Amino acid sequence: MSIPQNASPATAAAAPEFTNILMATDFSLAAQAALQEAIRLSDQCTARLTLLHVFEYSQLVAPDMELQFANLEPIREFAQRQLLDAVHAAQQAGVSCIGKMTAGYPPVEIVEVARESQVDLVVLGTNAFHGVERLMFGSTAEAVLRETSCPVITVGPHARCLKERTHGNADPIVFATDFHHATINAIQYAAAIGQTLGGPLHCLHVLPRTLEDGSRNDVVSQIMTEALQQAVAESGVTVHAPVYSVIYGSEVSNAVVDYAREHHARLVVLGVQHASMMASHTPAHIAYRVITEAPCPVLTICFRPDSLSSLADALPHTYSTITTNQP
Q1: Buried b vs exposed e over 95-133: b needs ≥16 C-beta within 10 Å?
Q2: Which domain covers residue 255, as residue numbers?
Q3: Residue 134, phi then psi, degrees to nearest 5
Q4: Is 11 domain-assigned?
């Protein structure tokens, strides 16, 4: 990846090159949809694809329980066959692909393999919505996107039935930001991946519905539009004819999802803050709700506090005052 996590806008390269993609699969319906996205991205980026399956069952029994281990072998062999079938499907699509199987706790294994293999991008699927479902594969997706050092694309339940786009290069990359440090720096990746995939960049900010009918709504909207323009100007990447959209919404994640659906988005890009894996079990945050509801894949980039650039600091104080006062 040509844009390191600690790059500043002044030194960031124009476009990250995704040459090494990792896709983690548990062979579920969600993973099947994610596999199609991983194959499509690998083909578009001319990237090498690694398909990873983490075999969890061996962690459920004690080492001295030989009978249980013996009974697990057919399950392991079945998983290996499924992995080989997935690799073959990718290769049939013209993608350079290999398979890898490890044993352990999926979030830890995925992050470790991504680190060891120096991948540029991780692709995951999730079918979690709420409650118990979220504590299963949903927690894996969220833990990985907050722990890995590279961007993560998550294919949520509403993006499962991905078909070939009929709008061609008109399908936009939607970059949504609240101007927090962790979100504004993702503009570098959003712009670059738009260049790679050939889609226009839409820069989106959601204002609270309470401001929509106020006497100063036009002024506030104009200020936030200028803030989006400055974010692009300060990003260090070249963006051709970006679209700046300031909309109103009662709930930010719903507004982002509705915008993506209305504009037939190819991808939504979000910046998220680093947190420990335990944080994946806290109540759903905006990024997670966007992932599980979006009609398209969602790319998240996790920024640690010590790696954030000064891009957000360059924005006028007025912008941060308005956004801080949002409910």
Answers
A1: bebebbeeeeebbbbbbebbeeeebbbbbbbbbbeeeee
A2: 168-324
A3: -70, -30
A4: no
Highest mean pLDDT among 52-61, 118-127, 207-216: 118-127
Q: Are 52 and 110 within one domain? A: yes
Residues 282 and 176 in one domain: yes
Looking at the structure, tell me whether residues 295 and 178 fall in a common domain: yes
- Which neighbouring-strand residues pair with 169? none
Q: Which of 107, 136, 159 is the last residue of a domain?
A: 159
What's the number of domains the chain is made of? 2
Do residues 220 and 241 touch, judged by C-beta distance below 8 A? Answer: no
Of 214, 159, 211, residue with least CA distance to 323:
211
Give the model's pLDDT for residue 184: 79
Spell 219-232 as b/e; 16+ CB within 10 A means b: ebbebbebbbebbb
pLDDT in tens, 196-229: 888 899 999 999 887 777 666 678 889 999 999 9
Query: Which residue from 144, 237, 148 is spatially nearest to 190, judged by alpha carbons?
Result: 237
Please state the rounded mean pLDDT for residues 31-37.
92
